[in-house]
Structure formats: C-alpha cells, structure tokens
Write a structure and sequence with these properties.
InterPro entries: FAD-dep_OxRdtase, FAD/NAD-bd_sf. By secondary structure, the chain is α/β, with parallel strands linked by helices. Helix content is 31%, strand content 27%. Flavin-adenine dinucleotide binds next to helix 2 and strand 12.
Length: 298
C-alpha cells in the first residue's frame, strides 16, 4: 500500500540523510581486520574491535551502510525472554550501550525506553513466562507480571478479555535501527575504523599454516586485494553463501517477516509500550501517530 510505504519512508529518511558521513577512500592493501557487511552487526563488531584497542580495522559494505536487513528492522529492543545468562547479559549490555551512544558519538539512536509487555494468552504461556521471568530476574532483568487490566492501562487499544497476564519490563523499548547503526559506524570511525561503501567482497583468501587453514585477506568484486590477519563475516543473510566459498558452514537461514505501518490513528500515544502477543504471532507499537503491526508466520 502506497500510504503505508510513504509512512515508513518518512520514518526512515533521517537515517538515509546521515549516510554522507561514511565517505569512501581508496581500498587499503593491508588491514589487521576486515569486517564484511555494513549492517548493525558489522558496525557493532567494528566499533567494539576498535573499542578493545584494535588498530587498522576496515569495514567493507557492498552497497551502503544499513542497506541490508537492518534498514527494515522494527527496532524492538527487549531484555526479556532469553533462557540463558550470556544472551541476557548481551541484551542488558546492548540496552545500556544504546542509551549511551548518542552522548558518545553525537548521533541519535532513537532509543526510547517506553517499556515492553509480553502477553500470555493461555495457561501454558503463563507458566512458561513465569519460569522465564524467574530466570531473567536472577540475571538482572526487572520483569514484573501484570494483570490484564494493567496491560490495558498501559496500552489502551489492547483487548484483554482473552489474556491471562502480561510480563512487563519498564526499561525496555525501541530504537531506530538505522540511527543505531549510524551511531555505531560513527563511533567506530571516531576510533579510526575505515568504512568503505560500494565495496563488495568476492572472495576470502586463505593459506595452510602448520596444517591449519588460515585467512589471509579478501579480494573485492573490483579485484583489489586486502591482506588481513582477521576477516569477520557479518554479511547477514548473505553470510552463508560467502562462508560456503571457503567451506565454512554458517547456519544462517533467512526467514520472511514483515510489518505494516498504519496511517495516523486518533488516541495513539507514541509513548505506549511495545506489546508482543506470541499466541497471534504479532507485535504492536506506536509508530509516528499510528501503529506498527509486525507479523510472523505461524
Ligand atoms: C521486518 C523486520 C523487522 C525486524 N525487527 C527487528 C526488531 O524489532 N528487533 C531486532 O532486534 N531485530 C529485528 N529484525 C532482525 C534484524 O533486522 C536483523 O537481525 C539485523 O538487521 C541483521 O543485521 P546484520 O548486520 O546481520 O545484517 P544486514 O543488515 O543484512 O547487513 C549485512 C550487510 O552485508 C552486506 N553484504 C553482504 N554480502 C556482502 C559482501 N560479499 N561484501 C560486502 N558486503 C556484503 C549487505 O549489503 C548488508 O548491508 C527485523 C527484521 C525484519 C526483516
């Protein structure tokens, strides 16, 4: 629908405008590490390598930074729901990072801690989320079970006569994925990372050292060679095919997922929380003066 697409483009255009800072310079002949892919993962890897003190990091993006899946993301940022400590810690770290990146880089991330509610629509999910909540609380996520009436108070458009409870994390919420990525890219560049757009990687080169295969660098689609000690494949849904060229199995499987953005709706408050209802494979959050409704395949 044209109207929905226009709304979406309105939301995303801030990110497109900011592309200009990621300028192109000549492809270097050597780097300590080459990061392949300029989505949120590639930029985060480059940012963190530089933060850990690695010099001479180059990121190569075949199109433009954020041009892949990252551009489409709904921006939900949630610490609730993981069943293990490591990924819960990563979620908490991410939330903290996103709340601080703007101060560090001067680039807004759109981080809005509007809260997140996971709905339990039946007894099984209620039991499951109570268990997950116990694990999450143990690892520092401040999640609370709330009644259907409390859910409706927080998100008045929510029909609650068929739900058992909500699981609410006040500090979670949403970001603008393009802006977060641009902030990570800016933070990376501020620490010396070279980000090159319109430079695709055709091949990862390797040699055998002491009986073990090791990467030696990359060859770009234009035929330039970059020697590197480390190559990090952050090519998103293209990562598997790229890995296969070197007989490296990357078990990534692209999954179809989509959302709609409505026109402006009366009474929608942009500060309402994100609501997720796994029983209907749906998440809903305010977007501008309307709603974003994300849908998964059953
Ligand atoms: C509709 C939708 C909604 C979503 N909502 C959310 C959400 O709310 N919250 C959430 O956490 N996640 C969400 N996701 C998932 C999220 O978008 C992805 O997990 C994330 O963006 C993946 O980032 P990435 O950097 O791995 O991949 P990408 O953003 O796809 O980046 C990979 C990059 O690699 C580049 N590339 C590929 N091959 C090469 C090559 N050979 N040489 C150079 N560059 C190359 C591509 O051009 C691309 O820019 C959503 C996804 C979709 C589709």
């Amino acid at each position: 629908d044209g109207i929905m697409l226009r709304n979406l483009l309105k939301v995303r255009k801030s990110g497109w405008k900011q592309r200009a800072f990621s300028s192109n310079s000549p492809v270097p002949k050597q780097a300590r590490a080459v990061v392949i892919g300029g989505g949120i993962i590639g930029n985060s890897v480059a940012y963190h390598l530089a933060k850990m003190g690695m010099k001479d990091v180059v990121l190569l993006e075949q199109q433009q930074v954020t041009a892949g899946t990252t551009w489409h993301a709904a921006g939900l940022m949630v610490t609730f729901g993981s069943m293990n400590e490591t990924s819960t810690d990563m979620r908490k770290y991410t939330r903290k990072l996103y709340s601080e990146l703007e101060a560090e880089t001067g680039q807004a991330t759109g981080f809005k801690p509007v809260g997140f509610i996971e709905l339990a629509a039946d007894a099984d999910r209620l039991e499951e989320y109570r268990r997950i909540s116990a694990i999450n609380r143990k690892h520092g996520v401040d999640v609370h079970e709330i009644s259907p009436q409390e859910v409706q108070k927080l998100f008045p458009l929510c029909r609650v006569d068929d739900i058992q409870a909500g699981f609410y994390v006040k500090e979670d919420g949403r970001v603008n994925p393009v802006d977060v990525t641009m902030a990570l890219a800016k933070g990376a560049r501020m620490q010396g990372v070279k980000i090159l757009e319109n430079v695709g990687v055709a091949d990862i080169t390797e040699k055998v050292f002491n009986g073990h295969r090791r990467v030696t660098g990359v060859v770009t689609t234009a035929g330039e060679v970059i020697e590197a000690e480390y190559v990090i494949n952050c090519a998103g849904m293209w990562a598997r095919q790229l890995g296969e060229k070197n007989r490296v199995v990357i078990p990534n499987q692209a999954a179809e997922h989509y959302y709609i953005v409505t026109d402006a709706m009366p009474n929608v408050d942009p500060n309402w929380p994100v609501v997720e209802d796994p029983s209907s494979y749906t998440y809903i959050r305010p977007e501008g003066s309307g709603l974003m409704v994300g849908l998964f395949e059953p």
